[in-house]
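User: I'm putting together notes for a lab meeting next week and I want to include a structural view of one of the chains we've been expressing. I don't have a solved structure, so I'd like a prediction I can at least talk through. The sequence is below, exactly as it appears in our construct file.
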Amino acid sequence: MIVRIMGEGQVQIADGDLGVLNALDTELESAIEADDETTFRSALHALLDKVRHVGKPLADDALEPSELILPPADASIDEVREMLGDQGLIPG
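Assistant: Thanks for the context. Below is the predicted structure for the 92-residue chain, given as C-alpha cells.
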C-alpha cells in the first residue's frame, strides 16, 4: 500500500504492518472524538512515526498514486477530523 504523509512524500507499507497502524489510528480517532488535544497530538505523532518506521520511502521522482493520505505532523485536530472517513484515516 502506498501512503503519502502530506508535505513529506510517499512510503510503501506492507500489509502485515496495517494492524499496528489501525490500532494507532483508533487511538487517534478516540482522541478526536473526546476533543482531547494533548492525546490527539501524541496519537498523531505516534501514527506518523510508525508509518515512517515501517514504510519504505519511494523515490522522489516516483509518480505512484497514494492509496492513503495522512495529515502532516502539525495538522490541527479540526483538520484531521475533516480527513477522517468511516474507518478513520486507515481503513481496515
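A couple of points you could mention at the meeting. The chain has one domain: 2-83. The first strand starts at residue 2 and ends at 5.

User: Perfect, that's what I needed.
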